[in-house]
Design a protein that fits this description.
Oligomer: single chain
Shape: elongated
Low-confidence stretches: none
Strand order of the largest sheet: 1-2
Radius of gyration: 18 Å
Mean pLDDT: 77
Helix content: 25-40%
Number of helices: 3
Number of strands: 2
Distance between the termini: 19 Å
Length: about 100
């Protein structure tokens, strides 16, 4: 329902501000995005440009934990890939969003 309201307002040429940490939601609903870090606006622009800036220029890191080994991954945007030994701690529980 909220997504539909945002889509309708966008179709009417209106500017809509919304906050989300869910990248797929932002990509689906936004033409331009702003990234705020520690209360300061760090970047504004199309989502593709923002992703490039934060991933390549700022050196942000993505961690992926899986139960199964992942295949060998090669991509020009990946500057470093580390494979860690499996975690044996049974108290691990995935983060909830």
């Amino acid at each position: 329902m909220v997504k539909e309201i945002i889509r309708e307002a966008r179709a009417d040429g209106k500017t809509v501000f919304f906050s989300s940490h869910i990248l797929s939601e932002v990509e689906e609903l936004s033409d331009r995005v702003g990234i705020i870090v520690r209360g300061r606006l760090k970047a504004v622009g199309p989502i593709g440009e923002i992703k490039r800036q934060f991933m390549e220029l700022e050196g942000y890191e993505i961690k992926v934990e899986t139960k199964e080994p992942i295949p060998d991954v090669r991509h020009e945007a990946i500057t470093r890939l580390s494979v860690l030994p499996p975690q044996t701690d049974s108290s691990f529980s995935p983060a909830r969003t």
